[in-house]
Task: inverse folding
């Protein structure tokens, strides 16, 4: 064995951190390859020697390094190939002064992009990246390194909040096909790191479903390579994804599974996994279980001699649990132990950050610990700026100052200075520091509260809102947080504030909530093929179509796209007089309260309706109620958070659909014995309906904009204060948003009658469904109501046949599975047959899925006359964790595409009762053509509730399973 290989092995086993391990593995190899097999042999020899000497903990650590070297064999081979490509000198980019040969034009451009990335000129780097994309790489090795360069740029873009651009930069190297083909057949699997980056970027843009697909792919790839370190990263990212999207039970489940896996593999990673599991349990109020995880992490760390970083994390976790339990002395003792272990283990920076986070709110007697940490912070600052550490420490100092007598002014000044320093550090840091300042300004500090503090807080957060409005890269969750804070300020301090325009505080709060709820979807419509209404001159229509084709063509140059954007703005100005709502839609501008007020008061049945819209945030739900007859807008704030609503929604779903993945599993509700399961938690939502009922009395129709947090809740079944369900007092028509409602006047077939309408019934099961006939015989329902039905079933229900039949159908009943594309909702749709085959409801390659998918975009292009579309089986896709369904998003996409009303199921419906309700609904529509469609649906619900065919059908499981979605009030009354 050579000296070089022995030196590498020696440096590995003496490394103090994983970063050093990585450096010791790759740096020598870059300077000159060593024999990997000899390094592995040396490590195995050392492991056996330690084991023979009775030192099992050290032997296990050497075993970890052995696995790490073995797992990176393929990376060493790529380094060798890269050396042959670019010469002897190789770094993360080509060294200064060395350029790729002209025979590699793509690498010339990519090297330029890499240099711009390193200097921080991200705008130019993105421009060069777009120009380079059209040039194919000359080899697989070159493609690999181009991907690495792009990942570096994407990471930098993500740091400054430009995740959508980062995805565009990486589009050429996307590891999954539309989020549904993690392992494309015949292609080399990309690295787990790339999957994880793609997952993070999709989550930044609010697409947790695709994010989780990426993490699952990373996990699969890492397992193939037996790469324990990346298995840990991938699985941890998956668990965090569930947690970030409010699915805490799944987050805890995945965290437990990861711990169980790592117990057999790596003590180093099992400690980190235990700490993560403890954090999840702590956040969900399971304090005893969290404490056990932290103590177990400490025990393993001590037994294996692991460093102070994991020990520090465990001690601070124990301290946080003790603090939540009210044991301040025990919490401080744990924090002190954690800090000391970090210092002793050489993790001073980690220790300082932990203290700063834990002691932002002081504990009795914590001065010594905090001052010691501050001293270490000062020493670290002298070594160079660490902005993350600096922000954490400075926020802690400012907060503690605020809590001191007479410290409000000084603490606030510290936060103002921090905000000023954050301006050049990127959007994320500007947002974090602005929140801290706003919170400090409006917090209760007795008589020390400064005059004008609320105004300053409003101005600070309003500035964030304006910056977000100017940037298309803002993540939806960041936008919601800013709007939530502004709404709170307006409702709590509206009379004190100087507002940016003439709107009242309540009106501005309404407009901000609509902006937050509707804008994410409206963004997708700005360039989508939504046909303009009649009244716009044909030359303008043609020019708009040409400009949109430039904007949607990926090969268009940035210069052409900028010119098209500018011209489109002028064009829409010319269109606005003839079609103001269409132009508003095209510009992605949400409706304002003034628009909603004018629209609702103009309706023929304005005296019989009320509009109720919800805005849910981390702490509460704000209810906006407008009654056209009284012309009054009111607000109520209910202490039910977004998480509370999600918990009740999951409770209802699990009660009805069962929990087959739990242990022990729980069967679905028995349809004839529904009262055997408790549904009392629906009563937790009574304050939610009480918040508007006193304003809506005497109005039959409630137009409800539910916000996504309410999307799975059966609002019609929520008990009112007297115990009766809401549906007994009001018909519920769900509208996607106020902006969607205002889109109604420009929809194409507005005002058409259902008398004599063509009726289509199409049904197709997925090929995984065990009994296809259950989804393919619904034409009987329409026929029983007296309609003449055009029927397409099974393999005959192709997307072409259904689309052609929809072209003349006023009523359509489709039983199939759905697919929702969160990144581009107009590419959502219905999975139908094709080529003699039923579709799959599982994730699949885009090219296979598109052959079966009738999209919302297809609906738009086809100029359909569909007044009513019933989707009877889409909830099956929604409930299947392997399927890509999303009921609310799919319905919203169909409504924007031009379908007038949609009936869809909120959970897996009972076949008998749902058929009975729909037969009754269809019969009422046919027998009473002069009544609004919502009235017929309400009548059917009330009949099943009060006079059921069978007694069990009076249970909400049966009559509340189907919900009516639409644009709003009917614009027709059939003669």
Result:
């Amino acid at each position: 064995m050579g000296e070089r290989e022995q030196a590498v092995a020696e440096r590995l086993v003496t490394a103090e951190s994983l970063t050093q391990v990585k450096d010791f593995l790759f740096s020598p190899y870059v300077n000159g390859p060593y024999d990997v097999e000899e390094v592995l042999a040396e490590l195995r020899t050392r492991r056996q020697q330690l084991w023979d000497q009775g030192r099992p903990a050290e032997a296990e650590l050497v075993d970890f390094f052995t696995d790490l070297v073995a797992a990176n064999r393929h990376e060493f081979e790529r380094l060798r190939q890269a050396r042959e490509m670019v010469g002897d000198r190789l770094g993360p980019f080509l060294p200064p002064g060395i350029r790729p040969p002209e025979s590699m034009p793509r690498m010339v451009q990519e090297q330029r992009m890499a240099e711009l990335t390193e200097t921080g000129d991200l705008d130019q780097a993105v421009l060069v990246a777009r120009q380079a994309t059209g040039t194919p790489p000359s080899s697989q090795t070159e493609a690999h390194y181009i991907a690495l360069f792009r990942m570096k740029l994407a990471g930098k873009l993500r740091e400054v909040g430009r995740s959508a651009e980062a995805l565009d930069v990486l589009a050429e190297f996307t590891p999954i096909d539309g989020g549904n083909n993690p392992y494309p057949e015949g292609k080399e699997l990309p690295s787990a790191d790339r999957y994880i980056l793609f997952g993070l970027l999709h989550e930044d843009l609010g697409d947790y479903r695709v994010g989780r697909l990426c993490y699952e792919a990373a996990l699969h790839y890492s397992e193939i390579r037996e790469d324990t370190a990346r298995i840990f990263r991938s699985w941890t990212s998956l668990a965090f994804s569930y947690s970030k999207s409010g699915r805490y039970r799944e987050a805890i489940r995945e965290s437990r599974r990861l711990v169980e896996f790592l117990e057999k593999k790596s003590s180093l990673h099992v400690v980190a996994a235990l700490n993560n599991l403890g954090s999840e349990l702590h956040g969900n109020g399971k304090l005893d279980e969290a404490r056990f995880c932290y103590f177990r992490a400490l025990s393993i760390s001590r037994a294996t001699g692991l460093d102070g970083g994991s020990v520090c994390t465990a001690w601070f976790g124990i301290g946080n649990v003790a603090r939540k339990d009210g044991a301040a002395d025990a919490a401080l003792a744990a924090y002190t132990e954690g800090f000391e272990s970090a210092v002793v283990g050489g993790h001073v920076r980690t220790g300082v950050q932990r203290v700063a986070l834990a002691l932002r709110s002081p504990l009795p007697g914590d001065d010594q610990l905090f001052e010691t940490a501050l001293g270490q912070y000062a020493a670290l600052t002298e070594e160079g700026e660490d902005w993350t550490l600096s922000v954490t420490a400075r926020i802690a100092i400012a907060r503690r100052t605020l809590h001191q007598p007479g410290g409000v002014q000084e603490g606030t000044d510290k936060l103002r200075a921090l905000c000023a320093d954050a301006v050049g550090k990127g959007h994320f840091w500007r947002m974090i520091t602005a929140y801290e300042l706003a919170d400090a300004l409006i917090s209760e500090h007795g008589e020390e509260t400064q005059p004008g503090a609320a105004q300053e807080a409003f101005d600070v957060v309003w500035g964030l809102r304006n910056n977000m409005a100017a940037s298309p890269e803002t993540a939806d969750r960041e936008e919601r947080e800013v709007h939530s804070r502004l709404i709170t300020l307006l409702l709590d301090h509206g009379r004190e504030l100087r507002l940016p325009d003439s709107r009242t505080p309540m009106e501005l709060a309404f407009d901000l909530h609509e902006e937050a709820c509707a804008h994410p979807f409206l963004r997708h419509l700005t360039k989508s093929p939504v046909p303009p209404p009649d009244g716009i001159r044909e030359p303008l229509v043609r020019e708009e179509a040409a400009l949109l084709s430039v904007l949607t063509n990926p090969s268009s140059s940035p210069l052409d796209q900028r010119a098209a954007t500018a011209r489109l703005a002028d064009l829409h100005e010319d269109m606005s007089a003839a079609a103001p709502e269409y132009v508003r839609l095209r510009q992605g501008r949400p409706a304002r309260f003034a628009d909603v007020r004018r629209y609702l008061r103009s309706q023929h049945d304005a005296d019989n309706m009320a509009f109720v819209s919800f805005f849910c945030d981390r702490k509460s739900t704000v209810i906006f109620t407008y009654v056209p007859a009284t012309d009054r807008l009111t607000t109520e704030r209910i202490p039910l958070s977004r998480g509370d609503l999600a918990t009740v929604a999951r409770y209802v779903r699990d009660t009805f659909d069962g929990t087959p993945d739990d242990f022990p599993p729980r069967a679905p509700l028995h349809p004839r014995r529904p009262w055997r399961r408790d549904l009392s938690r629906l009563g937790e939502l009574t304050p939610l309906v009480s918040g508007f009922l006193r304003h809506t009395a005497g109005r039959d129709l409630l137009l409800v904009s539910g916000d996504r947090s309410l999307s799975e809740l059966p609002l019609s079944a929520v008990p009112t204060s007297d115990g009766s369900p809401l549906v007994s007092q009001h018909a519920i028509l769900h509208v996607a948003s106020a902006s969607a409602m205002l889109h109604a006047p420009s929809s194409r077939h507005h005002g058409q009658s259902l008398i004599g309408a063509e009726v289509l019934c199409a049904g197709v099961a997925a090929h995984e469904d065990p009994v296809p006939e259950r989804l393919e015989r619904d034409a009987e329902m329409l026929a029983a109501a007296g309609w003449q039905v055009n029927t397409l079933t099974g393999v005959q229900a192709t997307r072409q046949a259904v689309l052609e039949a929809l072209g003349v159908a006023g009523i359509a009943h489709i039983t199939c599975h759905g697919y929702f594309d969160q990144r581009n909702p107009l590419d959502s749709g219905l999975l139908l047959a094709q080529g003699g085959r039923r579709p799959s409801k599982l994730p699949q390659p885009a090219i296979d899925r598109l052959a079966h998918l009738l999209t919302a975009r297809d609906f738009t292009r086809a100029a359909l006359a569909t007044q009513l579309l019933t989707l009877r089986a889409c909830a099956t896709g929604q409930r299947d964790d392997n399927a890509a369904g999303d009921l609310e998003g799919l319905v919203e996409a169909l409504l924007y595409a031009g379908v007038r009303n949609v009936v869809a199921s909120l959970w897996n419906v009972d076949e008998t009762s749902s058929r009975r309700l729909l037969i009754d609904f269809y019969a009422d529509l046919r027998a009473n053509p002069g009544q609004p469609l919502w009235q017929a649906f309400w009548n059917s619900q009330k009949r099943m509730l009060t006079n059921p065919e069978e007694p069990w059908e009076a249970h909400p499981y049966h009559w509340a399973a189907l919900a009516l979605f639409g644009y709003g009030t009917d614009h027709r009354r059939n003669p």
Remarks:
- The longest helix spans residues 140-159.
